[in-house]
Amino acid sequence: MAPVKVSKICCIGAGYVGGPTCAVIALKCPHITVTIVDLNQARIDAWNSPDFNVPIYEPGLVDVIRQARGRNLFFSTDVDKAVREADLIFVSVNTPTKKSGVGAGFGADLHYVESATRRIAAVATSNKIVVEKSTVPCRTAESMRTILEANSKPGIRFDILSNPEFLAEGTAISDLFAPDRVLIGSLQTSEGKDACKALADVYANWVPKERILTRISSVNALSAICEATGANIDEVAHAVGFDSRIGPKFLRASVGFGGSCFQKDILNLVVEMNEYQKSRFSKTVVDTLFNTITGKHIAVLGFAFKADTGDTRESAAISIIRDFLSEHLQEACPNTPLESIKKSVTIVHSALEACKQKEAIVIATEWKEFQSIDWELVYGQMAKPAFVFDGRMILDAEKLRKIGFTVKVIGRGDRV
Ligand code: ADP
Fold it and tell me: What is the pLDDT of residue 338?
Protein backbone atom coordinates (compact mmCIF):
# COMPACT_ATOMS: atom_id res chain seq x y z
CA MET A 1 0.00 0.00 0.00
CA ALA A 2 1.23 3.49 -0.85
CA PRO A 3 1.68 6.01 1.98
CA VAL A 4 -1.48 7.98 2.78
CA LYS A 5 -1.56 11.52 1.52
CA VAL A 6 -2.67 13.39 4.62
CA SER A 7 -5.46 15.88 3.93
CA LYS A 8 -7.17 16.15 7.32
CA ILE A 9 -5.44 16.38 10.66
CA CYS A 10 -7.07 16.33 14.07
CA CYS A 11 -5.20 17.37 17.19
CA ILE A 12 -6.61 16.21 20.52
CA GLY A 13 -5.61 18.72 23.20
CA ALA A 14 -5.46 22.47 22.61
CA GLY A 15 -2.71 23.14 25.12
CA TYR A 16 0.88 24.36 25.03
CA VAL A 17 1.99 21.56 22.74
CA GLY A 18 -1.00 20.84 20.51
CA GLY A 19 -2.10 24.45 19.99
CA PRO A 20 1.10 26.01 18.64
CA THR A 21 2.30 22.85 16.85
CA CYS A 22 -0.86 22.26 14.88
CA ALA A 23 -1.42 25.99 14.25
CA VAL A 24 2.00 26.08 12.59
CA ILE A 25 1.22 22.93 10.60
CA ALA A 26 -1.97 24.62 9.35
CA LEU A 27 -0.07 27.78 8.43
CA LYS A 28 2.63 25.91 6.54
CA CYS A 29 0.30 23.39 4.86
CA PRO A 30 -2.64 25.32 3.41
CA HIS A 31 -3.80 22.18 1.60
CA ILE A 32 -4.36 20.33 4.88
CA THR A 33 -7.39 20.97 7.10
CA VAL A 34 -6.34 21.05 10.74
CA THR A 35 -8.90 20.81 13.53
CA ILE A 36 -7.72 21.23 17.10
CA VAL A 37 -10.16 19.82 19.63
CA ASP A 38 -10.37 19.98 23.39
CA LEU A 39 -12.92 18.99 26.02
CA ASN A 40 -12.40 22.34 27.70
CA GLN A 41 -15.01 24.68 26.22
CA ALA A 42 -13.49 27.84 27.71
CA ARG A 43 -10.14 27.01 26.14
CA ILE A 44 -11.68 26.44 22.72
CA ASP A 45 -13.71 29.67 23.04
CA ALA A 46 -10.49 31.53 23.77
CA TRP A 47 -8.79 30.05 20.68
CA ASN A 48 -11.82 31.17 18.67
CA SER A 49 -12.09 34.62 20.25
CA PRO A 50 -12.76 37.35 17.67
CA ASP A 51 -10.07 39.62 19.16
CA PHE A 52 -7.45 36.81 19.10
CA ASN A 53 -7.32 36.61 22.86
CA VAL A 54 -5.79 33.11 22.62
CA PRO A 55 -5.28 31.08 25.82
CA ILE A 56 -1.52 30.72 25.44
CA TYR A 57 1.01 33.45 25.17
CA GLU A 58 3.82 32.75 22.70
CA PRO A 59 5.57 35.41 20.65
CA GLY A 60 4.33 35.10 17.06
CA LEU A 61 1.41 32.80 17.89
CA VAL A 62 -1.36 35.36 17.32
CA ASP A 63 0.05 36.11 13.90
CA VAL A 64 -0.13 32.43 12.97
CA ILE A 65 -3.71 32.16 14.22
CA ARG A 66 -4.72 35.33 12.33
CA GLN A 67 -3.48 33.87 9.07
CA ALA A 68 -4.74 30.32 9.38
CA ARG A 69 -7.87 30.36 11.54
CA GLY A 70 -11.04 29.95 9.49
CA ARG A 71 -8.94 29.15 6.41
CA ASN A 72 -7.73 25.64 7.19
CA LEU A 73 -7.37 25.85 10.96
CA PHE A 74 -10.36 25.20 13.22
CA PHE A 75 -10.90 24.87 16.95
CA SER A 76 -13.76 22.77 18.29
CA THR A 77 -15.05 20.74 21.22
CA ASP A 78 -16.50 18.11 18.90
CA VAL A 79 -13.76 15.55 19.43
CA ASP A 80 -15.61 12.64 17.82
CA LYS A 81 -16.37 14.42 14.56
CA ALA A 82 -12.79 15.63 14.13
CA VAL A 83 -11.43 12.16 14.92
CA ARG A 84 -13.79 10.50 12.46
CA GLU A 85 -12.85 12.84 9.63
CA ALA A 86 -9.08 12.88 10.11
CA ASP A 87 -6.45 10.72 8.38
CA LEU A 88 -3.91 11.63 11.01
CA ILE A 89 -4.50 12.36 14.70
CA PHE A 90 -2.07 14.01 17.08
CA VAL A 91 -2.60 13.10 20.72
CA SER A 92 -1.29 16.02 22.75
CA VAL A 93 -3.25 15.87 25.95
CA ASN A 94 -1.84 16.67 29.36
CA THR A 95 0.49 14.24 31.14
CA PRO A 96 0.79 15.55 34.69
CA THR A 97 3.27 14.05 37.11
CA LYS A 98 1.68 11.43 39.30
CA LYS A 99 0.91 12.57 42.83
CA SER A 100 0.55 9.17 44.44
CA GLY A 101 1.20 5.49 43.95
CA VAL A 102 3.87 3.78 41.89
CA GLY A 103 6.12 6.39 40.29
CA ALA A 104 4.73 9.31 42.35
CA GLY A 105 6.76 12.48 41.94
CA PHE A 106 8.44 11.41 38.72
CA GLY A 107 6.15 9.10 36.71
CA ALA A 108 3.73 10.59 34.22
CA ASP A 109 0.02 10.10 34.75
CA LEU A 110 -1.12 8.74 31.43
CA HIS A 111 -4.83 8.49 32.05
CA TYR A 112 -5.60 11.42 29.72
CA VAL A 113 -3.58 9.73 26.99
CA GLU A 114 -5.41 6.53 27.71
CA SER A 115 -8.89 8.03 27.55
CA ALA A 116 -8.09 9.96 24.36
CA THR A 117 -6.80 6.70 22.83
CA ARG A 118 -9.90 4.80 23.86
CA ARG A 119 -12.05 7.56 22.35
CA ILE A 120 -10.22 7.22 19.02
CA ALA A 121 -10.77 3.45 19.05
CA ALA A 122 -14.45 3.91 19.87
CA VAL A 123 -15.36 6.45 17.19
CA ALA A 124 -13.00 5.76 14.28
CA THR A 125 -14.69 4.38 11.17
CA SER A 126 -11.63 4.43 8.87
CA ASN A 127 -7.85 3.86 9.04
CA LYS A 128 -5.95 6.37 11.16
CA ILE A 129 -2.39 7.33 11.76
CA VAL A 130 -2.21 8.13 15.47
CA VAL A 131 0.71 10.26 16.59
CA GLU A 132 1.82 10.37 20.18
CA LYS A 133 2.81 13.97 20.75
CA SER A 134 2.44 14.42 24.49
CA THR A 135 5.60 14.33 26.53
CA VAL A 136 5.37 10.72 27.58
CA PRO A 137 7.65 7.84 28.59
CA CYS A 138 8.93 5.39 25.99
CA ARG A 139 6.58 2.49 25.52
CA THR A 140 3.51 4.73 25.57
CA ALA A 141 3.14 4.20 21.85
CA GLU A 142 3.01 0.47 22.53
CA SER A 143 0.32 0.86 25.15
CA MET A 144 -1.65 3.00 22.71
CA ARG A 145 -1.22 0.32 20.07
CA THR A 146 -2.54 -2.33 22.44
CA ILE A 147 -5.67 -0.32 23.21
CA LEU A 148 -6.34 0.57 19.60
CA GLU A 149 -5.85 -2.98 18.38
CA ALA A 150 -8.01 -4.51 21.09
CA ASN A 151 -10.89 -2.09 20.63
CA SER A 152 -10.98 -1.39 16.93
CA LYS A 153 -13.67 -2.55 14.57
CA PRO A 154 -12.83 -5.10 11.88
CA GLY A 155 -11.16 -3.71 8.76
CA ILE A 156 -9.85 -0.56 10.47
CA ARG A 157 -6.11 -0.17 10.82
CA PHE A 158 -4.29 2.10 13.23
CA ASP A 159 -0.65 2.99 12.73
CA ILE A 160 0.96 4.54 15.76
CA LEU A 161 3.87 6.94 15.53
CA SER A 162 5.99 8.70 18.10
CA ASN A 163 6.81 12.30 17.33
CA PRO A 164 8.30 13.85 20.46
CA GLU A 165 8.08 17.57 20.92
CA PHE A 166 11.23 19.62 21.45
CA LEU A 167 9.76 23.12 21.50
CA ALA A 168 10.51 25.38 24.45
CA GLU A 169 7.83 27.58 25.93
CA GLY A 170 8.60 31.18 25.05
CA THR A 171 10.17 30.31 21.71
CA ALA A 172 7.59 27.76 20.54
CA ILE A 173 6.78 29.46 17.25
CA SER A 174 10.36 30.05 16.14
CA ASP A 175 11.25 26.51 17.27
CA LEU A 176 8.40 25.18 15.14
CA PHE A 177 9.27 27.34 12.13
CA ALA A 178 12.88 26.17 12.10
CA PRO A 179 13.27 23.01 14.18
CA ASP A 180 16.76 21.59 14.78
CA ARG A 181 15.24 18.23 13.97
CA VAL A 182 11.88 16.49 13.74
CA LEU A 183 11.97 12.97 15.10
CA ILE A 184 9.44 10.38 13.96
CA GLY A 185 9.44 6.79 15.16
CA SER A 186 7.39 3.84 14.00
CA LEU A 187 7.25 0.08 13.98
CA GLN A 188 9.52 -1.69 11.54
CA THR A 189 6.68 -2.90 9.31
CA SER A 190 5.86 -1.68 5.83
CA GLU A 191 2.68 -0.05 7.21
CA GLY A 192 4.74 1.58 9.96
CA LYS A 193 7.21 2.95 7.45
CA ASP A 194 4.39 4.24 5.23
CA ALA A 195 2.84 6.03 8.18
CA CYS A 196 6.24 7.54 9.01
CA LYS A 197 6.53 8.76 5.45
CA ALA A 198 3.02 10.29 5.54
CA LEU A 199 3.89 12.39 8.60
CA ALA A 200 7.37 13.23 7.27
CA ASP A 201 5.67 14.57 4.12
CA VAL A 202 3.59 16.93 6.25
CA TYR A 203 6.70 18.41 7.90
CA ALA A 204 8.53 18.49 4.57
CA ASN A 205 6.27 21.39 3.55
CA TRP A 206 8.62 23.67 5.49
CA VAL A 207 11.32 21.64 7.25
CA PRO A 208 14.41 20.67 5.20
CA LYS A 209 14.41 16.90 4.54
CA GLU A 210 17.74 16.28 6.27
CA ARG A 211 16.27 17.57 9.51
CA ILE A 212 13.41 15.10 9.49
CA LEU A 213 14.68 11.91 11.07
CA THR A 214 12.54 8.84 10.76
CA ARG A 215 13.72 6.22 13.11
CA ILE A 216 12.56 2.67 12.90
CA SER A 217 12.21 1.46 16.41
CA SER A 218 14.98 -0.49 18.01
CA VAL A 219 13.44 0.42 21.33
CA ASN A 220 11.66 -2.90 21.58
CA ALA A 221 14.89 -4.83 21.53
CA LEU A 222 16.54 -2.52 24.05
CA SER A 223 13.65 -2.54 26.44
CA ALA A 224 13.59 -6.34 26.29
CA ILE A 225 17.14 -6.43 27.57
CA CYS A 226 16.36 -3.98 30.35
CA GLU A 227 13.30 -5.96 31.31
CA ALA A 228 15.22 -9.21 31.40
CA THR A 229 17.93 -7.83 33.66
CA GLY A 230 15.76 -5.43 35.62
CA ALA A 231 18.56 -2.98 35.93
CA ASN A 232 20.06 0.12 34.47
CA ILE A 233 23.63 -1.03 34.09
CA ASP A 234 25.01 2.53 34.02
CA GLU A 235 23.46 3.26 37.38
CA VAL A 236 24.71 0.03 38.84
CA ALA A 237 28.27 0.50 37.57
CA HIS A 238 28.26 4.10 38.70
CA ALA A 239 27.07 3.25 42.21
CA VAL A 240 29.49 0.37 42.64
CA GLY A 241 32.39 2.38 41.26
CA PHE A 242 31.87 4.93 44.06
CA ASP A 243 32.98 2.42 46.64
CA SER A 244 36.73 3.04 46.85
CA ARG A 245 37.40 -0.53 48.08
CA ILE A 246 35.83 -1.83 44.92
CA GLY A 247 36.23 0.94 42.40
CA PRO A 248 36.36 0.14 38.77
CA LYS A 249 37.81 -3.29 39.47
CA PHE A 250 34.55 -4.72 40.75
CA LEU A 251 34.19 -7.13 37.91
CA ARG A 252 37.33 -9.09 38.79
CA ALA A 253 36.64 -12.55 40.09
CA SER A 254 38.56 -13.92 43.03
CA VAL A 255 38.84 -16.95 45.27
CA GLY A 256 35.97 -15.73 47.46
CA PHE A 257 35.68 -13.29 50.31
CA GLY A 258 36.19 -13.58 54.04
CA GLY A 259 35.04 -11.47 57.00
CA SER A 260 31.58 -11.20 58.46
CA CYS A 261 30.22 -7.87 57.34
CA PHE A 262 30.47 -8.43 53.65
CA GLN A 263 28.70 -11.75 53.98
CA LYS A 264 25.88 -10.15 55.98
CA ASP A 265 25.63 -7.34 53.47
CA ILE A 266 25.30 -9.86 50.68
CA LEU A 267 22.54 -11.70 52.51
CA ASN A 268 20.68 -8.44 52.98
CA LEU A 269 21.17 -7.69 49.35
CA VAL A 270 19.57 -10.99 48.38
CA VAL A 271 16.54 -10.21 50.53
CA GLU A 272 16.35 -6.73 49.09
CA MET A 273 16.63 -8.09 45.58
CA ASN A 274 13.67 -10.31 46.32
CA GLU A 275 11.64 -7.34 47.53
CA TYR A 276 12.78 -5.38 44.54
CA GLN A 277 11.70 -8.14 42.21
CA LYS A 278 8.19 -8.03 43.67
CA SER A 279 7.89 -4.26 43.43
CA ARG A 280 9.29 -4.38 39.91
CA PHE A 281 6.47 -6.74 39.01
CA SER A 282 3.86 -4.34 40.43
CA LYS A 283 5.52 -1.53 38.54
CA THR A 284 5.37 -3.50 35.29
CA VAL A 285 1.65 -4.03 35.83
CA VAL A 286 1.00 -0.35 36.54
CA ASP A 287 3.23 0.89 33.70
CA THR A 288 1.57 -1.40 31.21
CA LEU A 289 -1.92 -0.35 32.30
CA PHE A 290 -1.10 3.20 31.19
CA ASN A 291 0.85 4.13 34.27
CA THR A 292 -2.23 4.29 36.42
CA ILE A 293 -4.58 1.72 37.89
CA THR A 294 -6.90 4.25 39.49
CA GLY A 295 -10.44 3.15 38.69
CA LYS A 296 -9.29 -0.13 37.19
CA HIS A 297 -10.17 -3.61 38.33
CA ILE A 298 -7.56 -6.28 38.73
CA ALA A 299 -7.98 -9.95 39.50
CA VAL A 300 -5.13 -11.47 41.51
CA LEU A 301 -5.24 -15.23 41.16
CA GLY A 302 -3.75 -16.87 44.21
CA PHE A 303 -3.20 -15.34 47.62
CA ALA A 304 -0.99 -17.83 49.46
CA PHE A 305 2.79 -17.85 49.20
CA LYS A 306 2.85 -21.05 47.16
CA ALA A 307 0.57 -23.78 45.84
CA ASP A 308 -1.29 -26.17 48.14
CA THR A 309 -1.11 -24.06 51.24
CA GLY A 310 -3.31 -21.55 53.01
CA ASP A 311 -0.25 -19.81 54.38
CA THR A 312 -0.19 -16.20 53.31
CA ARG A 313 2.83 -15.09 55.35
CA GLU A 314 5.26 -13.14 53.17
CA SER A 315 3.16 -14.01 50.13
CA ALA A 316 4.15 -12.21 46.97
CA ALA A 317 0.47 -11.70 46.15
CA ILE A 318 0.07 -9.64 49.29
CA SER A 319 3.06 -7.36 48.60
CA ILE A 320 1.71 -6.80 45.13
CA ILE A 321 -1.78 -6.04 46.37
CA ARG A 322 -0.23 -3.59 48.85
CA ASP A 323 1.51 -1.86 45.96
CA PHE A 324 -1.74 -1.70 44.03
CA LEU A 325 -3.60 -0.25 47.00
CA SER A 326 -0.97 2.44 47.42
CA GLU A 327 -1.70 3.32 43.80
CA HIS A 328 -5.18 4.55 44.52
CA LEU A 329 -5.39 4.88 48.25
CA GLN A 330 -2.99 7.51 49.40
CA GLU A 331 -3.13 6.31 52.98
CA ALA A 332 -2.02 2.78 52.18
CA CYS A 333 1.69 2.16 52.59
CA PRO A 334 4.06 -0.80 52.51
CA ASN A 335 3.19 -1.53 56.13
CA THR A 336 -0.55 -1.77 55.58
CA PRO A 337 -1.66 -4.55 57.92
CA LEU A 338 -3.02 -7.69 56.36
CA GLU A 339 -6.43 -7.16 57.95
CA SER A 340 -7.00 -3.87 56.14
CA ILE A 341 -5.84 -5.41 52.88
CA LYS A 342 -8.49 -8.05 53.32
CA LYS A 343 -11.04 -5.25 53.75
CA SER A 344 -10.00 -3.62 50.47
CA VAL A 345 -10.11 -6.71 48.33
CA THR A 346 -12.99 -8.99 47.48
CA ILE A 347 -12.06 -12.62 47.91
CA VAL A 348 -13.84 -15.11 45.65
CA HIS A 349 -13.31 -18.78 45.07
CA SER A 350 -13.55 -19.13 41.32
CA ALA A 351 -11.14 -17.75 38.76
CA LEU A 352 -13.97 -17.03 36.35
CA GLU A 353 -15.81 -14.98 38.92
CA ALA A 354 -12.62 -13.15 39.91
CA CYS A 355 -11.90 -12.14 36.32
CA LYS A 356 -15.36 -10.92 35.37
CA GLN A 357 -15.26 -7.31 34.04
CA LYS A 358 -11.62 -6.95 35.08
CA GLU A 359 -8.96 -5.26 32.97
CA ALA A 360 -6.11 -7.46 34.10
CA ILE A 361 -5.20 -10.75 35.72
CA VAL A 362 -2.14 -10.92 37.91
CA ILE A 363 -0.60 -14.24 38.85
CA ALA A 364 1.67 -14.23 41.85
CA THR A 365 1.13 -17.73 43.21
CA GLU A 366 1.72 -21.05 41.52
CA TRP A 367 -1.62 -22.68 41.47
CA LYS A 368 -2.57 -26.08 40.06
CA GLU A 369 -6.07 -24.86 39.20
CA PHE A 370 -4.62 -22.77 36.36
CA GLN A 371 -4.57 -25.91 34.25
CA SER A 372 -8.31 -26.33 34.45
CA ILE A 373 -9.33 -22.74 33.73
CA ASP A 374 -11.29 -22.18 30.51
CA TRP A 375 -9.31 -19.17 29.29
CA GLU A 376 -11.59 -18.47 26.34
CA LEU A 377 -14.50 -18.13 28.72
CA VAL A 378 -12.43 -15.89 31.01
CA TYR A 379 -11.38 -13.72 28.06
CA GLY A 380 -15.00 -13.32 26.97
CA GLN A 381 -15.93 -11.93 30.39
CA MET A 382 -13.11 -9.40 30.72
CA ALA A 383 -12.85 -5.72 29.75
CA LYS A 384 -10.70 -5.18 26.63
CA PRO A 385 -7.79 -5.04 26.16
CA ALA A 386 -7.46 -7.93 28.60
CA PHE A 387 -4.01 -8.24 30.18
CA VAL A 388 -2.39 -11.19 31.89
CA PHE A 389 0.70 -10.64 34.02
CA ASP A 390 2.31 -13.95 34.77
CA GLY A 391 4.68 -13.58 37.69
CA ARG A 392 5.40 -17.31 37.86
CA MET A 393 6.05 -18.29 34.25
CA ILE A 394 3.31 -20.81 34.70
CA LEU A 395 0.93 -20.12 31.82
CA ASP A 396 1.12 -20.95 28.14
CA ALA A 397 1.60 -17.38 26.91
CA GLU A 398 1.28 -18.25 23.24
CA LYS A 399 -2.04 -19.98 23.76
CA LEU A 400 -3.36 -16.99 25.69
CA ARG A 401 -2.17 -14.56 23.01
CA LYS A 402 -4.04 -16.55 20.38
CA ILE A 403 -7.21 -16.11 22.39
CA GLY A 404 -6.64 -12.34 22.41
CA PHE A 405 -4.96 -11.64 25.75
CA THR A 406 -2.03 -9.27 26.00
CA VAL A 407 0.43 -11.32 28.02
CA LYS A 408 3.40 -10.12 30.00
CA VAL A 409 5.64 -12.65 31.66
CA ILE A 410 7.91 -11.32 34.37
CA GLY A 411 11.54 -11.76 33.53
CA ARG A 412 10.90 -11.86 29.83
CA GLY A 413 11.09 -8.82 27.62
CA ASP A 414 7.80 -9.59 25.95
CA ARG A 415 6.32 -6.83 23.92
CA VAL A 416 3.06 -5.61 25.39
P1 ADP B 1 0.51 20.34 27.21
O2 ADP B 1 1.41 21.32 27.88
O3 ADP B 1 1.09 18.94 27.17
O4 ADP B 1 0.03 20.77 25.87
P5 ADP B 1 -1.92 21.24 28.45
O6 ADP B 1 -2.44 20.91 29.82
O7 ADP B 1 -1.51 22.62 28.12
O8 ADP B 1 -0.76 20.18 28.15
O9 ADP B 1 -3.03 20.82 27.36
C10 ADP B 1 -3.60 19.59 27.27
C11 ADP B 1 -5.06 19.76 26.87
O12 ADP B 1 -5.61 18.47 26.57
C13 ADP B 1 -5.97 20.38 27.91
O14 ADP B 1 -6.53 21.57 27.39
C15 ADP B 1 -7.05 19.31 28.16
O16 ADP B 1 -8.33 19.88 28.34
C17 ADP B 1 -6.99 18.50 26.89
N18 ADP B 1 -7.48 17.13 27.02
C19 ADP B 1 -7.15 16.19 27.94
N20 ADP B 1 -7.77 15.03 27.68
C21 ADP B 1 -8.51 15.20 26.58
C22 ADP B 1 -9.41 14.36 25.81
N23 ADP B 1 -9.61 13.07 26.12
N24 ADP B 1 -10.01 14.90 24.72
C25 ADP B 1 -9.79 16.19 24.38
N26 ADP B 1 -8.98 17.02 25.06
C27 ADP B 1 -8.35 16.54 26.15
Answer: 65
Give, in order, the Cα–Cα distances in Å from 38 to each of 8, 209, 239, 352: 17, 31, 45, 39
Nearest alpha-carbon partner for 382 in 117, 151, 141: 151
Mutation test residue for ligand 1: of 24, 44, 94, the one with most atoms within 8 Å of CB: 94
Q: Say how many Å lie between the CA of residue 19 and the centre of ligand 1.
A: 10
Q: Strand runs (DSSP E) across 152-201, as ranges? A: 158-162, 182-186
> How far apart, in whole angstroms, are the C-alpha atoms of residue 199 and residue 133?
12
Domains of the chain (ranges, CATH numbers): 8-215 (3.40.50.720), 261-409 (3.40.50.720)
- Who contacts 80 (Cβ-Cβ below 8 Å, separation ≥6)? 119, 123
Q: Whose CA is nearest to atom 9 of ligand 1?
A: 15
Whether 75 is in the pocket of ligand 1, judged by its Cβ within 6 Å, is no
* Residue 261 annotated in active site: yes
Residue 308 φ/ψ region, left for φ over 0, alpha for ψ in the -120 to 50 degree band, beta for the rest: left
Going by C-alpha positions, the residue among 373, 377, 362 that lies closest to residue 296 is: 362
Ligand 1 binding pocket includes 117 (Cβ within 6 Å): no
Pinpoint the alpha helices (H) of 215-293: 219-229, 233-241, 260-288
Ligand 1 contacts CB of residue 167 (under 6 A): no
Quote the mean pLDDT of the chain.
80
pLDDT tens for each residue of 395-415: 889 999 999 999 988 755 443
